[in-house]
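Long-time lurker. I teach an intro course on protein structure, and each term I like to show students one example going from raw sequence to a predicted 3D structure in token notation. This year I'd like something fresh instead of my usual example. Would anyone be willing to generate the tokens for the chain below so I can use it in lecture? Attribution to the forum is fine with me.
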Amino acid sequence: MDKKEVTARVMQKLAYKLFIDDERTPPNNTWTVVRSYEEAIKKIKEKGSPDFISFDHDLGLGKTGDDFAKWLIDQHLDGNIQFKNNFKFKVHSANPVGKENITKRLNNFLKHIRG
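-- Reply from a regular --
Happy to contribute to a lecture. Here you go:
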């Protein structure tokens, strides 16, 4: 195993919670906060897969929380990241359609990979 693989495995094991929202603040200071799709991707690349993600759907004028959920799934399928066995999420978005889309997408994918 080369240095890059070792680093990736160590980062994968670090526990953290990701809060993605362009406006709201998390309920306490235990969250890693990102404000955009791009920031969320950067944080995943830096820290690996989180244990928990709290999603907003509408992230300003750019891509959405659902776009980020799609990116996460694609990264897993491509072997770039691995969802942790204990991974959980919630969608705190006020957008009911966006909330449903993210929830269904991730629940279906997690059901598929967990059996």
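Some talking points for your students: The first strand starts at residue 17 and ends at 20. The beta strands are 17-20, 31-34, 52-55, 88-91.
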